[in-house]
Design a protein that fits this description.
Strand order of the largest sheet of chain A: 3-13-12-6-11-10-9
Strand content of chain B: under 5%
Helix content of chain A: 25-40%
Structural class of chain A: alpha/beta
Radius of gyration of chain A: 19 Å
CATH architecture of the largest domain in chain B: Orthogonal Bundle
Order of helices and strands of chain B: HHHHHHHEEHHHHHHHHH
Number of domains of chain B: 2
Oligomer: heterodimer
Number of helices of chain A: 10
Largest sheet of chain A: 7 strands, mixed
Shape of chain B: flat
Strand content of chain A: 25-35%
CATH superfamily of the largest domain in chain B: MetI-like
Number of helices of chain B: 16
CATH architecture of chain A: 3-Layer(aba) Sandwich
Structural class of chain B: mainly alpha
Distance between the termini of chain B: 61 Å
Largest sheet of chain B: 2 strands, antiparallel
Number of strands of chain B: 2
Amino acid sequence: MEQALIRESTGRQSPTLVSRRVSRDNRQTVGDPFVADPRMTCRNVNVYYGDKRAIKNVSLDVGRNEVIAMIGPSGCGKSTFIRCLNRMNDTIEGCRVTGEITLDGQNIYDSGLDVVALRAQVGMVFQKPNPFPKSIYENIAYGPRIHGLVDSKAALDELVENSLKKAGLWDEVKDRLHEPGTGLSGGQQQRLCIARAIAVSPEVILMDEPCSALDPMATAIIEDLIDELRQHYSIVIVTHSMQQASRVSQRTAFFHLGDLIEVGATSQVFTNPLHELTEDYITGRFG
Amino acid sequence: MEPQLLLCFLLLLSTAGYMIGKRQALAVGRSARGIRSLHSRPAYHGALTALWCAVPAALIFALWLGLDSNIIIRQVLAEMPASFRELPPSEQNLLVNEIKNLVNGNVFTNEVDPVLNAAAERYIRYRSISHGALTVICLSLGLVGILAVKRRISINLRARNQVERIITGVLIACSCIAILTTVGIVLSVLYESILFFRQVPLNSFLFGLEWSPQMAIRADQVGSSGAFGAVPVFWGTLMVSAIAMFVAVPIGLMSAIYLSEYANRRFRDVVKPLLEILAGIPTVVYGFFAALVLAPVVRNTGNSLGLDVSSESALAAGLVMGIMIIPFISSLSDDVINAVPQSLRDGAYALGATHSETIRQVVLPAALPGIVGSVLLAVSRAIGETMIVVMAAGLAANLTLNPLKTVTTVTVQIVTLLIGDQEFDSPKTLAAFALGLVLFVVTLCLNVIALYVVRKYREQYE
């Protein structure tokens, strides 16, 4: 079963049968970065920090109702890449993005596009839980308020309750909604941040190592939550834990030094990688 | 030996002590199982020796110099003829001053009383005896210290722990100096204030509506009887400070927000130091500016609008004071805003908040304790400010709501009350201390409130 299908990153169908893994020297994407009905598409994306090219010609699709995991050694550009998907890189001085990224067919780097609306559609959860210094209720209500999503107190109450329920936090906090969100435990804070992202009803949720600051119990809860959220949202998750990637994701993308090396179904990437670098990484030879 | 020279010798001696202790430790270590077998590094043994040499001697030195001149004077007086000894205390003080002048060679007349001359000579003799004794005691104490420690040095001597304990003691003593100074200031002001309140009742001072401290200080002098109602003075302070804060808080806060959130790096690196220069301008210079530039502008503008404006107005003083305070607020708030973690901003941006929404609803609330702190610091500064108001606000104590009129402030009154030759038993002079005491209490309360506010918000936010 050493045979594999390679396509070029441009997406042209040029199947080649090979009998063994792609050599380490090949920097082109192997596997299938494209899906039939994508939510987001990225074509030939390059990111520069000043003169440094942090992402090199990456093309990748994010499908509907799927969890796609980004793995790779530190500094490989996976965080930089997902920060392109909601234009969070705009806030970094000297950062430049080229190429095309679309959400539902609309180019998000279009000059006419409102970045505020984009970020309401593409939510983000960060590595370290970052609840606002406000009450639990206000943390959730903040997004809907600034976007004018609700017009009455009752509707807002309901939205807060639903968001907390979806994030699996409602039962733990329903009696103390007006206490500071910063008083929760780390895992609860992270779920609060997920609830906060859900409250503005996004289509895609980006998660940048959401469990790296949490203990195994809290991690397990969040992983279950991610699996449930897949029914409503597309989720892009960056993780350093290969077990986590294999547990929660349907597809996996492996980055190395700014190149997208391999994309494929998670089960295939972890059991039968097409690229030698991928194999090295998942077997722990570097990373 | 002169005390200064003695101090140098002590320093040399303790340096020698350091060397001796270190060498002894090395020798002890080598003769045992090598230097590693010492409990503490040789440098600690040296430091311990030096400290035991210097600290007790220095304590004796300070104590001795603090007491010896009093003792000598008492002895000299006791040996003077009875006619001098039985003088009243105030004249005795004069006498002592005269003797000390003779001792220091400040002789202003040709004819010096032979009795005084003899007293001065005795004083000099006693003093040299005292210094000689001090030299012997200090140096021998230092030597004893060195030898005692040197004898104790062994591989088990816990020199590091002992040195660190002594250092801790020194640190405690240093922090006590600050506290004791505060206590001393409070007590001295309190003492004079009590003298004042013996002559003027507390009630009429705190709640009296008229301030006119001019009063006859001699029986035959024509002067008003004096009125010490502090309300107009405190009202003036309040009004000028309030005007200053109205200027400084919005401008300072907004420039802080601009600098920390919007300005690019290069602009910020240039502008922030420039803004901080404002804080470095002497307040007297602000006073010129207020009196010569701003006050006429305020008056002319007011007159052209048909308003009656005094040439020295609360408004002019408050405006300039506000400008002076801007850097306090902007610089501190800028630091506080910068300290708000980037992750909070990212969180807001990721929800689709705009830049200004993020600042108003996330960054500023998180920075609030620090901002409150900077504002209250600025208020204390405004209340205590003197030179600007002396030059720009005037001296007349008006109880008025109109900022275009002349007002006076607590600090200005203190200055004017204490300028010139004053008797310290007249209520006019003592009133300055009472004002100072109340001002101190007010700023103390402000600081306590500030601490409370800051702590309360901290609890809520962390």
